[in-house]
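Write out the bound-state structure for farnesyl diphosphate.
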Amino acid sequence: MSRYKGLINPDIIPKHIAIIMDGNGRWAQKRSLPRTEGHKRGADVIEPLMDASIKLGIKTVSLFAFSVENWSRPKLEVKELWDLLKYYFQNNIERIKKKNIRIIHSGSTRRLPPSTKKIIQNAVDETKKNRKIVLNFCVNYGGRQDIVDGVNKWLKNRKPDEQLSVKKLERNLYTSGLPEVDLMIRTSGEFRISNFLLWQLAYAELVFMDVLWPDFNESHLYEAIYQYQQRERRFGKI
Ligand code: FPP
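---
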């Protein structure tokens, strides 16, 4: 039992948590396993994470599964990540549906392999009526690209002399309609945002944890939420 579980205040649960699932490669290297084994074990963490999030009453979980920068990894690792994504959805979609989880995708579909695109679209379509929790898969995602794509989308329907506003841009981001991120967790002891949800993290509390993603469990989630609850959120006020 986590020592943090009993310390959590049920009245200040974050609505939206975003996670940089870092450290898969190091987890595998430490065991002399191929890096892909780390990614596989990392994918196995997602379901227990969602179960715990549902129990806590979290409404949205955003996961950074593949960044626009990840294309510069060795070709084989990139291919194996796409294979894993396909395998994951093929094998889990029925359970995801039963658990009333809605999948959404944040990221560009431009460079995605057609079969990956199809499998993600299928997961989004199959779960669009689910209401318990949103699982926002950030795949081929970059925070800067999100903002640029959002501006370009807005420009397409812009009236002459119309000006862009915060609200208008938000409606055109990949995360349109999601609540603001309250808590961002990064595992593996790195202290960076790495181009993840740059706009959406504006007022998020950041928690960096010294655990490699495949070792992340319910107790780490409770600990992160406990840390979040100790912070004073002022949103620019005094
Ligand atoms: C970062 O660890 C992790 C990634 C680039 C990929 C994250 C993907 C998963 C957890 C699995 C995705 C889930 C599905 C369903 C496909 P790293 O490889 O950068 O680790 P390192 O910093 O230790 O090398």
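---
The chain is about 40% helix and 15% strand.
The two ends are 37 Å apart (CA to CA).
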